[in-house]
């Protein structure tokens, strides 16, 4: 077993006005049979409710496990930045304050990460499944990667198979080795929503080895009022989706600069993100946003003709760029069907 002073895993918990959910989140993070090598960093991002007091109670009760950071509001990205700066664990995972982790899965994850800490060549990233835990929805959709990669073995990017349309490595599925994350010099933009897409994209060229555990660790809680992924909220914040998409396009390496498997995956995810942003531009029903959609794709072409070609070649990319009002009608219908099936909003 690790020494009590050594931290295997640091959880970073960005929290802004999360008094209703913070306790559930933190309780899940400290639920392991032995949590002496687990660190929880709660970043109170300028909350005006009881979030600071709740965080401080955990800090006083478990001073060797829970750190509390109070800062003026800097948005999700600023809160993640603050937590990453203070993390002492060999590995790091971001868990939003309204989400939680599964106890059984956490035990599996800690067993693997403790083994990696003893290794001469620890893996750079651990991948786990995650659950769309939607309010009022009986069937919970689980995003699995068992058809993409073999579990419980050290992998390289070229060992990965084909990612399906609904499969991508977002923040909920990723645990980084802290040193790799810092070596990437990732600095998320402040006062910007949806920066978790940048978090789970920009550092990837610094990841050389990875491992997959086929267990649903992360419960992604969706459907509460005012949540940033609700359709009407995303339409109102379309400028921030565009900003994040631009940052991802800028971070995409040219082919030949990274392993082919990684390049293919990054093109896959950039395509998905560009399609998602385009969908909300179309759902807004505003002609100015139809023009912004075209500009989004032209922007990628201008940054890199090769990357632009490869992103546009994906099936979803071709579908989103169906011309005219008929194409937009098809996209709106497809979105409604997908939302009913998956329940992602």
Molecular structure report:
This protein has 345 residues and is α/β, with parallel strands linked by helices. The chain has two domains: 9-222, Spore Coat Polysaccharide Biosynthesis Protein SpsA, Chain A, CATH 3.90.550.10; 231-342. 44% of the residues lie in helices and 17% in strands. Strands 1, 2, 3, 4, 5, 6, 7, 8 and 9 form a nine-stranded mixed sheet that branches. The termini are far apart. The relative contact order is 0.11.
What is the fold's blueprint, element by element?
Elements: E1 9-15, H1 22-29, E2 38-45, H2 51-61, E3 66-71, H3 75-86, E4 91-94, E5 100-101, H4 103-117, E6 125-134, E7 141-143, E8 174-177, H5 178-183, H6 196-199, E9 210-222, H7 231-236, H8 238-251, H9 260-283, H10 287-303, H11 305-313, H12 315-320, H13 324-342
Parallel strand pairs: 1-2, 1-4, 2-3, 6-9
Antiparallel strand pairs: 4-8, 5-9, 6-7, 6-8
Helix pairs in contact: 8-9, 8-10, 9-10, 9-11, 10-11
According to CATH, the homologous superfamily of the largest domain is: Spore Coat Polysaccharide Biosynthesis Protein SpsA, Chain A
Residue stretches low in confidence (pLDDT < 50, at least 5 long) are 341-345
CATH architecture of the largest domain: Alpha-Beta Complex
What value does the Rg take, in angstroms? 20 Å
Query: What's the CATH topology label of the largest domain?
Result: Spore Coat Polysaccharide Biosynthesis Protein SpsA, Chain A
Helix content: 40-55%
């Amino acid at each position: 077993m690790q020494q009590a002073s050594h931290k295997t895993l640091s959880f970073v918990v960005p929290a802004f006005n999360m008094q209703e959910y913070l306790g559930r989140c933190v309780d899940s993070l400290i639920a392991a049979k032995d949590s002496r090598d687990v660190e929880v960093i709660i970043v109170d991002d300028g909350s005006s409710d009881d979030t600071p007091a709740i965080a401080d109670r955990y800090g006083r009760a478990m001073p060797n496990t829970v750190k509390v950071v109070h800062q003026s509001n800097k948005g999700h990205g600023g809160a993640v930045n603050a937590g990453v700066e203070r993390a002492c664990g060999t590995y790091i995972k971001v868990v939003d304050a309204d989400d939680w982790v599964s106890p059984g899965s956490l035990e599996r994850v800690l067993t693997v990460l403790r083994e990696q800490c003893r290794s001469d060549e620890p893996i750079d990233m651990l991948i786990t499944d995650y659950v769309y835990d939607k309010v009022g929805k009986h069937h919970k959709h689980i995003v699995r990667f068992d058809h993409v990669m073999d579990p419980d073995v050290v992998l390289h990017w070229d060992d990965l198979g084909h990612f399906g349309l609904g499969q991508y490595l977002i923040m909920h599925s990723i645990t980084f080795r802290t040193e790799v994350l810092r070596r990437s010099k990732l600095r998320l933009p402040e006062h910007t929503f949806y920066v978790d897409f940048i978090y789970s994209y920009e550092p990837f060229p610094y990841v050389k080895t990875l491992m997959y555990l086929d267990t649903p660790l992360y419960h992604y809680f969706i459907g509460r009022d005012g949540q940033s992924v609700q359709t009407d909220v995303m339409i109102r914040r379309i400028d921030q989706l565009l900003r994040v998409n631009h940052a991802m396009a800028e971070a995409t390496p040219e082919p030949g600069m990274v392993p082919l498997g990684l390049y293919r995956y990054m093109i896959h995810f950039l395509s998905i993100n560009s399609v998602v942003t385009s969908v909300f531009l179309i759902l807004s029903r505003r002609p100015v946003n139809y023009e912004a959609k075209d500009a989004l794709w032209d922007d990628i072409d201008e940054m890199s003709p090769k990357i632009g070609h490869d992103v546009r070649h994906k099936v979803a990319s071709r579908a989103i760029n169906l011309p005219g009002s008929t194409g937009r009608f098809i996209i709106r219908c497809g979105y409604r069907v997908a939302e009913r099936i998956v329940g992602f909003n």
